[in-house]
Amino acid sequence: MTTISRVHWKTRRTRMSQDRRLPVLVTAGLFVLMFGFGAFRYQAYGFLDGQVFMNLFIDNGYLLVAAVGATFVIITGGIDLSVGSLIGFTTMLTAWLVEKQGLPLAAVAPIALAVGAFAGYLMGYVIHHFEIEPFIVTLAGLFFFRGLCLVISKESISISDPTVDRLAQTHVPLPGGSFLSIAAVVSLAVLAVAFYVLHHTRFGRRVYAIGGNEQSALLMGLPVAGTKIAVYTVSGFCSALSGLLFTLYIQSGDPLHAVGLELDAIAAVVVGGTLLTGGSGYVIGTLFGVLILGLIKTLIQFEGTLSSWWTKIATGVLLFAFILIQRAMTARRGT
Amino acid sequence: MNLASLWRAAAQHRLFWPVTALIALLALNVPFTPGFFEVHLKNGHLYGSLVSIVLFGSPLILVAIGMTLVIATGGIDLSVGAVVAISGALACLVVSKQADQDSVAGVLLAFALALAAALVCGAWNGLLVARLGIQPIIATLILMVAGRGIAQLITSGQIITVNSDSYSLIGGGYWLALPFALFVVAFVAALSAALTRRTALGLLIEAVGGNAEASRLVGIRARRIKVMAYVFCALCAGVAGLMISSNVSAADGNNAGLWIELDAILAVVIGGTSLSGGRFHLGGTVVGALIIQTLTTTIYTIGVPTQANLVFKAVVVIIVCLVQSPAFRAKAFRARAKRSGPVPRPPGTPADAAHMEVSS
């Protein structure tokens, strides 16, 4: 009797620790904890104002979109290093087309998105059909698009187009007196779509299946080639969209925009509990990953005396803590 | 007949394609700079394009050698750029604090401290990968992100400049008419080649990279080998950091060694070492690093507009990787056989590519 109940208790405990949602819950918990710390420490400086929370979305909307794209790739067990360069290239392309060629933004945006998606498609094609490591192919993509930025112009191009200006200035009012920007709303919409696609469509199941075991997925008759290429296309599309949002946020194109942003995106995905080996993870986790990275910056701003490099050190420390937690859990799952 | 078999044997050598690429790149310079291969003696120093390629390429060669061993164990080290920055920053800080910046003892102390810091970084990476079993790409991402912050912390966000002749020897000085950096690189390359190819160490590293668990079961201390690889890689990066900072007599926590990890990984892959681990070619890596440095020099000498540098580099990288991909060679060859006519071949595809063995 006692043995049975003990076994029962034990299985329940292992089931809890095996729950794949646990990393996301831990991340969310940490976010709440950090936010609580900020609220407690900077109460007098208006940290609890709703707008401080909303600014997390406004200031990091573009990162969220890029990280959602990276989540798709990482769930299949791949990696995309070209994210930051593609974002930089999109800001450059948009600024150049709008300012120097005088095209309306409504025409430029689809072009930029198509270019990004096509770039992702090409990289996915080379990765899958020529069996070159994703790391190397997307690294070449990183160089290529950063280079294309410079080919367009070595100088920063500021955008004074009235449409861009109006979109950038638009406030979406929320109950409680706070507001979101258009970019923040778009990024949340992307998140919702990604959530639906990953968890409620066949494509989403295939993405997880390939990440779990590509060989098995192939033997099961899943269209591995198409899915893998599609995943990089999604990432390219998200990078381009993120680039458009970044253009709205910063209202200029610069060949040095978003340098190294791919690392922030990957860090956000990892902090959000997605395993880099693939096959496991949630876009909601990525949301919390992005929010935590944003919160670190906000906390350092509120502190005021800390220098910017502490952001990097704090991000590293946090990354380490999360990886340890993940590691502890996957080790338990293995036994 | 004899010549043909000799040719085939050469084409099957694993260094064949990397060396061909290097020679082609070097030859590309000749029409643009007539005296490209000339090396002349001036003030007791050797000068020439070839010498400067080796001189400016030496930090990359060092980092790539360390990276090769890490990749051979099935890992990867993204933190080398950060280690380069940390070691340069620390050394410059120590030298700049001294009353007599030229004192040899002071510079040696700076070197020792910088290398000790690199050693700690390597041990940290090794600990994460080997003891805690974290994926290498993530484990080293931590130090890649945090390391830049640490380097900026050391320099307080400033660029520290030093004015020390002894310090500038390692990165910019000459010894026996040759750049001193060349001797350091030669020493490290010879040491690592001797240790891995004249002792069983290389075999053990490949065994660990092939299957860490199996090698542990046959009695290889897999964890210790992995830690050693990361420590060695970080030490190489540390020396490279000293070279880079000494060459410009300054330490910049933000930009020193920026993207060197990507160049180093590229050099390793171009040199024929697979990213999946279990095999490595130090010779190939050195050639790979020289290819990248030559590429940079070529871009300047043939007058590619500076803004097209990166595009050019990306295109060359993709061509080199495609040529080395067995899947690509097979497909290109099959397409040609099927149409049985002259079809435009992708640039850089060798005619007898399909005959070539995967480098072993």
Automatic annotation (TrEMBL), chain B:
Subcellular location(s) per record: Cell membrane
CDD domains: TM_PBP1_transp_AraH_like
Entry's transmembrane regions: 15-37, 49-71, 108-130, 137-154, 174-195, 227-244, 256-275, 282-304, 310-330
InterPro entries the UniProt entry points to: ABC_transp_permease
Membrane association type: Multi-pass membrane protein
UniProt organism field: Actinacidiphila epipremni
Main location: membrane
Region entry Disordered, spans: 339-360
Name of the protein in question: ABC transporter permease
Keyword annotations: Cell membrane, Membrane, Transmembrane, Transmembrane helix
